[in-house]
Amino acid sequence: MRDTWLKIVTSLKERGIIPITMPCPPRGGAVLTTAQILIQQRLTNYQREFCRRNKGFLFCDYLKYFIDQASATGAPISTMVKADNLHPSATGAYYMGKAMTDLMSLYLPDPANSFYSAMDYYDATDNPTGTLLHSGATNYSTMAGTTGTHTASTNFTTSGNLAAGWTSIKSGGTATWATTCSKEARTDGWATGALQVVAHSITVAGSADEIHNLRATPVFSEINVNDWYYAECKIDVTAAPVNINALELYLLETRPSNSQTAIDQNYNAATSLLIPNVTWSGTLRTPPIKRTASATAVQVNLRTRANTLSGTASVTYKVTDFVVRKVDSDFI
Fold first, then answer.
1. Is-same-fold flag (2-104; 134-331)?
2. What pTM value is reported for the model?
3. pLDDT confidence of residue 189
4. Averaged in consecutive runs of 10 residues, what is the pLDDT profile of the chain (332 residues)?
5. What is the dihedral of CA 323, 329, 330, 332, to 10 degrees?
6. Helices 34-53 and 2-14, axial angle in degrees (round to 10)
């Protein structure tokens, strides 16, 4: 086991690749013998020490989040794995990803994503990659102002201060939602500017997947056929999600026969996994899509998808620097 692993990682290193090793996941249940568990521990210890002593080999130690130290057999914490006692749950996958992010952030800078000034809007001549979320010289990507639109519907109330150019709207479903919007100053280390806060509270049961949209509409006439474009925003989830399926950045191009979409943080309904009950922050960015000749409109949404079967669901997030941009022709 050791020799095979060494051959793999040294071969990668010789080819200019920095290998990152994640240890084998622990097993729950009476599956492995004591000898097998001890051998697995020995391999993990060797990998960790090798990576510590040799430059250019990284070890992603997610086990610090994953293992139940009260377990006599080194089993995983029950919430980290599915019923098979091996494959990670949504929570386990989150902590694996967190460990990887913690490690890689020491070696790779954060992707460039700075405050988009009020002047950073689309102009065909002078700024063709400016944000497409604007009205004339009014830039909606800064999330400034309080003149946004609240669209109430059956079993859904929405209120509070909402950024100009934005809409709070919910899709169908029978759960009772209350959405409260507010504005905050930027005190979180991000650049000075507006911060949109959206708080959802669900108190009466409904369906397994109900959707709220924080929505804006790009200037469609400024997106030409065959242009590539994408959406991006900064998000800070400040109240841990309860019974939330996903927080999706959803870019939609409407067409007569079907729609074209690009999504970050996509929810897979087939898995029925809720996102972990933890706070987090980061940047959401969709893959780019290519405008088709048959397209009739484009919209962008930050979608909250909730499982309301139990009658209780909630989450609060803050969002800013919300853009839809064309991809610069130099990078296509």
1. no
2. 0.86
3. 58
4. 97 96 91 94 97 96 94 92 90 92 84 72 96 96 94 96 97 94 78 82 94 98 97 94 96 94 88 86 94 97 96 95 94 86
5. 90
6. 30
**Cβ neighbours of residue 118 under 8 Å, at least 6 residues apart?**
139, 142, 144
Q: Helix H segments across the chain?
A: 2-14, 34-53, 63-66, 90-104
HSE on the CB side for 277, CA within 13 Å?
6
Q: Given the structure tokens 């029925």, which residue do they identify?
A: 272
Estimate to the nearest angstrom the gap between the alpha carbon of 126 and the chain centroid.
32
> Can you read off the two tokens belonging to residue 10?
């040294």
- Residues 115 and 191 sit within 8 Å (Cβ to Cβ): yes
Tokens of 55: 């430059």
CA 330 to centroid of chain Cα atoms: 27
> Please, is 113 exposed, middle or buried when counting C-beta atoms within 10 Å of its C-beta (0-12, 13-18, 19+)?
middle
Distance, in Å, from the CA atom of 203 to the CA atom of 314, rounded to the nearest integer, reads 9
Residue 193 is predicted with a pLDDT of: 62
CATH fit for domain 2-104, picks 3.30.930.10, 3.40.50.1110, 1.10.760.10, 3.40.50.1010: 3.40.50.1110
CATH number for the domain formed by residue range(s) 134-331: 2.60.120.260
Amino acid identity for residue 244 in this structure: I
pLDDT of residue 315: 98
Structure tokens at 124: 């065909």
